[in-house]
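so my prof wants the structure for this chain in the tokens format not the other one, which i didnt know existed until like an hour ago. anyway here's the sequence
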Amino acid sequence: MTDQLTVSVLGTGIMGAAMARNLARAGHTVRAWNRSRAKAEPLAGDGIVVAGTPAEAVEGADVVLTMLYDGPAALDVMRQAAAALRPGTAWVQSTTAGVEGVAELAAFAREQDLVFYDAPVLGTRQPAEAGQLLVLAAGPVDGRHKVTPVLDAVGARTVWTGEDGAEGSATRLKLVANSWVIATTNAMGEVLALSKALDVDPQNFFDAIAGGPLDMGYLRAKSALILDDKLSPPQFAVSTAAKDARLIVEAGERGGVRLDVAAASAERLERAAAQGHGDEDMAAAYFASFDEGHLQS
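here's what i got, hopefully its the right format
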């Protein structure tokens, strides 16, 4: 294919592994690295080269895509890769890094003469595996011809938010969107917990709102994970959602606004993680409504 690229994927967790597979299916040469190599090894069956170090993974890459836990993790991994990065390489940074985190990553990109694209994604495991993520991207127009085949392989649509990734416009939009997702998920958990406390069949609630403006497919999907005990494997893990909730609160503080719901959501998610639900789907914030000795589903 004329747009075949060599793409390095750093971070092959829930999202990164799916993105790497879709890049390989699109015909690109993919080299992948993960801190825990065992999580990356299955990608070899998809024709992906699993590298032992970040530097080995980025050697000869046209595009480097990072999908790591947070900004500091992304910066640490890219520093490990620095010796093998070629000047002019495009860096598609898809980690939810937060406003300050993106600024630090962009500064590193300038030091290394990389073309920086701030490109977080909206979506969870299933859309990631189907290549149906929504990509929020910001970066220079001149280099977009190189990164567009990568974004098209992992997403159904790309929304461009600006021409300078260092400004963090894509990350700021991602934080706004995630604030809605996290608030909705936590509200769902409290609805189910209150239903249990009041001895109300949740189905009666769903029937009451069916077809009206309060009905949501997302509400029903996340509720089903709790009611049907299908929290693993996670679509979006509790621990990651807690990290994002804290980034949202911090972004609000920087902007001079109090985000009480986001702060409470972060506390609920952190409490659920402390109860042992950190690796389960974020819907497991539901369990934060119960004392540890009285957990019920």
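also thought this was worth mentioning. The mean pLDDT is 96.
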